[in-house]
Amino acid sequence: MPYAAGNLSFELFLAPIPATPASFTGMLLLADQALGTTLGGVDRYRQYNDYASMVTDAAVLSAAVLQAGQDFFAQPGNKAYLLVGRINTGGAETYSTGAVLVKAAIAAAGATYWGVCLDKRTTAEILLVAADMATDEYGMCFIQSADATWLTAGYPAALTALENNERCSVCYHDTDTEWMDTSWFGNRLAFDPDEASAGWPASLANVANNATDPTAAQQVFLEANEGNLGLEWGNATFWVGNGVNCAARPIDHILSSDWFIGRSRERLVTLVQSYSARGQKITIDTRGQSVVAGELEAQLKVGLDVGHFLVESPVDSEIVSAIVPQAITAADITALRMRYSVTLVLATGAVSFPVTVYAQAS
Q1: For the segment 236-278, what is each residue's pLDDT rounded down to a tens digit?
Q2: φ and ψ at 65, to 5 degrees?
Q3: 260, 335: one domain
Q4: Do 242 and 257 fall within a single domain?
Q5: CA–CA distance from 123 to each of 84, 111, 116, 157, 344 (Å)?
Q6: Is residue 12 part of a domain?
Q7: What is the pLDDT of residues 71-122, one digit of tens each?
Q8: Cα distances (Å, whole numbers) of residue 98 to 114, 228, 362
Q9: What is the distance between the alpha carbons of residues 267 and 21, in angstroms, rounded to a whole number?
């Protein structure tokens, strides 16, 4: 299906930000206290930088969460970290209300993350987490489903609310106890977007193949309905070959856009604070516009250098990545603002390579 919207639209506000820069290499795993992830009954979340630290904490983590963490950290070159958040369902919390408390504790500590998973495969919890992510301006959640409906009829009736959710991706695996979702995040979040723009097709370690591989027709059908599937391919035993969200958009497009927004916000906050520290102000005029535009252009250049964006569209050379200050109006002066239009030509990775071969006798 086509993208849910032709363009990703963002507005940048100088809202409060964490004291530490936003991280795009962390994942939050929401886990049910009633299933064994107690975190001592006090902590709302704990951060783990390797599997050994989770083993040390095994008494307060469920067996499922330990396995998810093992698979997360087993990915080659993994430099990502894992936050485990506690949902107290025994205390009448849902995966929505409990997540609010978990996220508040994370924000209060100045910690950040980009990926979100949950320790359950049940419809109610999946829908709650995905709905919360749909209203967020940052991050991506992976949900995993073993419902065979994906292979023949598209979205299962109970999960149709996921369709067109830009901040949710579906991982299909016919074995619920496999951790394709957390493994995939661990594999891709190993790459810092300040240094590289990774595509999301990947060879995942520690994930067993489906008990029954889908037929070729079922694979095509699943992928046509925004499902992500792992199969043997080349020398990879579990290769996820597409990497799209529930709106059929490449996941790296979301990450690249979030990265630009997050880093631009940090640059502008630093800029405003540095002017204030020198007893100066950024004036609402062409000079002030150029100062702010310079920061946005610097961030755009980083994005071009590491491969998030292209200078121009490969389809239409008139569409270019650019920062354009908007004309200043009386309303802008009253509102103490300066407006900018930013066009980002997102770099897209190829996953299909049709080759036509003509062979003939000499």
Answers
A1: 999 999 899 999 999 999 999 999 999 999 999 999 999 999 9
A2: -65, -40
A3: yes
A4: no
A5: 21, 29, 16, 10, 36
A6: no
A7: 999 999 888 999 999 999 999 999 999 999 999 999 999 999 999 999 999 9
A8: 18, 28, 71
A9: 10
Range(s) of the domain holding residue 310? 253-346
The answer to whether the CB of 160 falls within 8 A of the CB of 1 is no
| Residue where a domain terminates, one of 210, 227, 249 | 249
| pTM recorded for the entire structure | 0.92
Residue 263 covered by a domain: yes
- Residue 346 pairs in a beta bridge with 309
CB atoms within 10 A of CB 243: 20
Strand 202-203, strand 227-233: pairing: unpaired
According to DSSP, the residues that pair with 6 across neighbouring strands are none
195 burial level (CB within 10 Å; 0-12, 13-18, 19+): exposed
| Residue 162 and residue 50 share a domain | yes
Q: Rounded to whole angstroms, what are the CA distances from 155 to 124, 144, 149, 167, 172?
A: 15, 13, 7, 16, 11
Task: Report helix, strand or coil for 77.
Answer: coil
Last residue of a domain, one of 249, 284, 303: 249
Q: Which of 219, 201, 199 shows the shortest CA–CA distance to 210?
A: 219
Residue 14 placed within a domain = no
Indicate if 44 and 93 belong to the same structural domain.
yes
Q: Does residue 6 sit within a domain? A: no
